[in-house]
Structures are given as C-alpha cells and as structure tokens.
Design a protein that fits this description.
The complex is a heterodimer of chains A (about 260) and B (about 350). Chain A has about 260 residues and is mainly alpha-helical. Chain A is built from 11 helices and no strands. In chain A, helix 2 crosses helix 5 and helix 2 packs parallel to helix 11. Helices cover about 25% and strands about 35% of the residues of chain B. In chain B, the strands form 4 sheets. Chain B has a 6-stranded mixed sheet with strand order 6-7-8-3-9-10, with helices on both faces. The longest helix of chain B is centred in the middle third of the chain and has 18 residues. Classes of the chains: A mainly alpha (about 260), B alpha+beta (about 350).
C-alpha cells in the first residue's frame, strides 16, 4: 500500500514536470528546425535562426544587458543603503514608509509606466525612462532581501563596536555591514537582474525603436517575424537567465547556512 | 597603568516619549579604577555606559575624560574601548583581523599590528584561535576575543556592558576571576556594567548601585554589603531579612522590639520612644543560640554545598539564615537563635 502511494507521488511529480518542461522542449526544437510546420523536422536542422536573432537583435540584447546591469548597480547602492537606514530607525512612521517603498510590487506595471511618462516624459528618448522604471519595479526585491537579512542579527551592535574602535560612518557601512550581508546583496542583485531582464509589461509602454529591450523584441519576433526566430530568441534569453537562477539558488542555500551557523 | 580619570557631571537622559532613564548623575572614576555600575534591568546603567561611549546622547550634563569634555565627540573620536554584551565580533573577519581592526584604522604598520595581535592572543590564552571566524568560537572564546579587540587600541578607558551575561554559570564564575586578575594587572580605568552582585563584588574597586536612573550609593563592595545607605541597596546586594521594629526607651538606652526578639539599638539616628524603625539582617548574622536568643521553628533546610540555607519562623515572621554544613538542623526542629546585634543594618 505504501509502495503504491510512493509510486503515485513520483508519477504525479513526473507528470507535472513534463507538463512544465514540454513548452521549453518545443521552443528549443522550434529554434533549430528549418521550418515550423505541421511535420516537425521535415525541413531538417539549422542554426540560422540564431544568426538572425543576433543580426536583428544584437543591439537589443546589448541594450537590455546594459539596462539590467545599471539597474542592479543602482539598486545595490539605493536598496542596501535604504534598507540599512530603515533597519536602524526606531521610528514607527518608518514602517509606513517601508510599505510605500514596496508598493511597486502590487501596482500594475502599466500604471507605473503611465505615471513615469506623465512625470519624466523628456527622459524617454535615451532609455532613461526604462532605467528609472526598472529601478522602481525591482527596488522592493533588493530592499526586502537586504532588510530581511538585517533583521536576523544585531547589526547595530556590529556598527557600534566598529565605531568604538575608531571607524567612521562610511567605513563602518562598507567594511563591516556590507561584507556581513554580502550574500543578501548578491541574492538581491540576481533577483533584480532577472526581473529587469524579463520585464515586459512596463517596458512595452516606455520603449522607443532605439531603446527596445529583449522581452519587447521577443514579443515583436513572435508577432511580426517567424516563430522559429521567436524560439531562438527565447533560447538566447534562457541562456542568459538560467545560470543566474542557478547561482541565485546556490547563494540562497549558502546564506541559509550562514544564518544557522552565524555569530 | 592608564593615567585617565573620568568625571560624569549631571548626566541626564530623557527619551522623546518623556521617560526619564537617568536622573542627573554625578560620578568620578579615579585613575586605574574599576567602577562597576550595578543595578536591576532598566535602572539606567547601560544607558549611562552608552552615553560615556558616545553611542547615545545625554539630554543634559557632560562627560570629562582627564578634564576634557568629550560629550560632543562621536564614539570613534573618544578612544574608548567597549566590550558589548553580545561581543559583536565582525563575522566576516578572523580573530586576528577582529583584534587588528582598530589598529588598522590608526594606521599602525603591519608589523606593529602583528606584534600586538600576538601579544593579546597570548595574554588572553587564545593563540590557537588566531585564524578562526567568530562563528567557530564558543561564547567564552568570543568574550576573550572581544576583550582583546577592545584592548588592542590601547584605550584611554575600557567600558564593559554585561560581558558575562550570555555565558553559562560555570564559565561565568571562571571568567569573572580571570577578568578581575586582568584588571588588576592592566590597571586601566574601567567602567563595568552588570546586574550580578557577585560579579560586581569580584571585579570592582568600587560599586555604584543604581535604581530607577539614580545612583543610590557608591562605595567599596564591603562598605555596600555591610553599610548600605538605602533599603534598595540593602536588599539588592546580597540576601537580607527585612525587619520592622519599634523603639523602646529604657534606663540603659534605646532598644528595638521586633516582636519575636528585643535587642539594643545600634543605629545612628536619634529616635523617640515608640518610633517605628526598619532594619535589615544578613542570613549569616543569625546563628544557633546555645541557651540565649529567641525560639524559632525550622520551616525548610536547603543544602547549598558549603552551607545550609535555613528558613525559620519566629513570632509569625519568616527569616532566612545561613549555617555551616556541619550543623545538624532539620525541618520541623525548634531551635534557639541569636542575632549579631551590631550587624543589624539601619538605613
């Protein structure tokens, strides 16, 4: 009876896994097939769709990576410093501000895009608006990750002991606090990078032909070009995202270990 | 020996919500002295320590170190070493890096840093821990590293905020002797905060007993134990029996009637006949009478190793007394007890 139960659990897990992985499998197949028709592989294998992706969307990929990296850098400073100031503050009103800062998670990205266009329309041209939008949307991830880690230990005591040994405010923050929450900052950065890389809803309203990002290009590829190019584009996107997801998983595991064996 | 003395002048702390954590405090800590701030939780002792360290601002008053007002200086400019209750060792640094942290900031050469680290590791008996991270250390080892780190900057003053509280009883007992010996050896001006009176007595040159933001008494451990200035000090430091009596005037002078026993009044105050008086009596100042004293019924006998703690009832009043462990005394016995009259404490 127990064996039957075990088998049915494995069967269920297998079924769900296949259900989840199957679309990815067909995307990969689609990206290397000559023609996506009724009969798969009837026209043979090819890598030409990848060449076309880099030909048509090379700049888009570069622009997206630039935006995502800048979003990460800005959020490392903004998110970490803000989180630490909130962590240190004993004022109750800061709790309300904390909720306000994490609002972008619950507001539809379209609404943020429209608000940004209304407020900073002039910045739209060079992609500045996309960068601001990505920073706003991803800020809560960095902030929440860092403040969550800060609240697991008494970092104020660490800062105070550094101060008593002669360290000024900047030295304390960058040489004592930041190294102690390094794993949280790395996790937050990866989350921010992944979210920025895949952000579509808001970017769709903010992009111009010169400031197109990867997910917008992907949509365009599916909508106006061939499904094979769209598939190749998706695989390129996954090649960028999957290693990061793996490292994110690893860093979460190691930060959990640090917390358990911490000081 | 550090040549530093501290003046605490009218230091007051009122929190924004109106809570007065410290009434105006005036204290002088002499050169090379170890002053222990002793009191229950919330009495303001840690707040005062944090104000001296510069980690909290006083609402009023000033802190003078060697006559120089340091009240306006941030903690990093005060040159005061602090050992915190949770040690607050830097988790990403090794023991040696933790100890060298302050020296690095003072731009000491690598060689100087190394020499000092080695000297402190040796002094604290933790040479083998040099390359370990704080997470690999026990509580006692972390405490030693925290002390070494604070001493490495050759501080003008050393402040210690309940450094033994997080440790188990046996280790605490061992380390307080070690710390007392270290203080005697270094002769560094030290302010040490604790709520543990045994720790205070073992370590202090003088003790400042605090309650509700007020320093009740500053004196040596012996003075505080034998001559407390207030009922709070009498009851907080050591075990004590609280007695209420009435003054009786007779030809031979004044005596106090405690109901179960009447004895000569040895207090300093001039009291009228029938005046009410409060007195305190240490458990060790009651002994078995052998034909003199008062009768009492033994309620309970607790074995404490080197002595028995005995709870007796005399004239409706419960008293605690300590007797050596070779005295035969059992629950339910009726015993005759006597009091060392001159040991009675009148506050």
């Amino acid at each position: 009876m127990q064996k039957v139960g075990k088998i049915s659990v494995y069967f269920l897990i297998g079924l769900v896994s296949v259900f989840m992985i199957l679309p990815l499998f067909f995307t990969i197949i689609g990206s290397v097939t000559g023609y996506w028709g009724t009969e798969l592989f009837s026209s043979g294998w090819t890598f030409k769709w990848y060449k076309e992706v880099f030909h048509f969307y090379g700049d888009t990929i570069l622009f997206t990576l630039t935006i995502s990296l800048l979003t990460v850098v800005i959020n490392i400073f903004l998110g970490t410093m803000t989180a630490y100031q909130f962590y240190k503050s004993r004022r109750r009103i800061m709790r309300i501000f904390e909720e306000i800062l994490t609002l972008p998670i619950s507001i539809p990205a379209v609404a943020i895009a429209l608000a940004l266009i209304q407020t900073y329309a002039l910045l739209r041209g060079a992609g500045g608006l996309i960068l601001i939008g990505h920073v706003i949307v991803t800020f809560p991830l960095m902030f929440r990750t860092v403040i969550g880690t800060l609240r697991t230990k008494n970092f104020i005591a660490l800062e105070e002991s550094a101060a008593s040994l002669g360290a000024g405010p900047f030295y304390r923050f960058f040489k004592v606090i930041v190294p102690s929450i390094k794993s949280a900052i790395i996790s937050g950065s990866m989350l921010v990078f992944l979210l920025s890389l895949g952000e579509f809803n808001m970017t769709f309203f903010l992009y111009t032909p010169l400031t197109e990002t990867l997910p917008v290009g992907l949509y365009e590829a599916y909508a106006s070009l061939r499904i094979e190019i769209g598939s190749a584009f998706t695989v390129v996107f996954l090649i960028l995202a999957i290693p990061l997801m793996y490292f994110l998983h690893r860093s979460n595991q190691s930060s959990t270990f640090t917390r358990n064996g911490g000081v | 020996m550090s040549n530093v003395h501290i003046h605490i002048n009218n230091v007051t702390k009122i929190y924004p919500n109106g809570t007065q954590a410290l009434e105006p405090i005036n204290l002088k800590i002499e050169t090379g002295e170890v002053l222990v701030l002793l009191g229950p939780s919330g009495c303001g002792k840690s707040t005062l320590l944090r104000i001296i360290a510069g980690l909290e601002k006083a609402s009023a008053g000033s802190i003078l170190i060697n006559g120089q007002d340091v009240s306006g200086l941030p903690p990093e400019k005060r040159g005061i070493g602090v050992v915190f209750q949770q040690y607050a060792l830097f988790p990403t640094m090794t023991v040696a890096e933790n100890i060298a942290f302050g020296m690095k900031l003072r731009k000491k050469s690598k060689q100087e840093q190394n020499e000092k680290v080695n000297e402190l590791l040796k002094m604290m008996n933790i040479e083998e821990l040099r390359d370990r991270k704080p997470s690999q250390l026990s509580g006692g080892q972390q405490q030693r590293v925290a002390v070494a780190r604070a001493l490495a900057i050759e501080p003008k003053v050393l402040l210690m905020d309940e450094p033994l509280t997080a440790l188990d009883a046996k280790l605490k007992e061992y380390l307080r002797i070690e710390l007392a010996q270290l203080f005697r050896k270094l002769q560094i001006t030290t302010i040490y905060v604790t709520h543990d009176q045994v720790e205070a007595m073992a370590i202090a040159d003088r003790i400042a007993v605090m309650d509700k933001g007020v320093v009740e008494q500053v004196a040596t451990a012996k003075e505080i134990y034998h001559h407390p200035h207030s009922p709070f000090v009498a009851q907080f430091v050591g075990q004590v029996n609280r007695l209420n009596g009435i003054i009786r005037k007779n030809e031979s002078g004044l005596s106090v009637d405690f109901g179960f026993y009447q004895m000569t009044y040895h207090g300093q105050n001039e009291l009228a006949d029938n005046a009410e008086v409060e007195a305190f009596l240490r458990p060790e100042d009651i002994s078995v009478g052998n034909g003199e004293g008062f009768d009492a019924d033994v309620q309970d006998v607790i074995f404490l190793g080197e002595r028995f703690r005995v709870i007796v009832e005399a004239g409706g009043k419960n008293l605690i007394m300590d007797v050596p462990n070779d005295v035969v005394i059992n629950k339910g016995d009726r015993v005759q007890l006597k009091v060392l009259e001159h040991k009675l404490i009148y506050t």
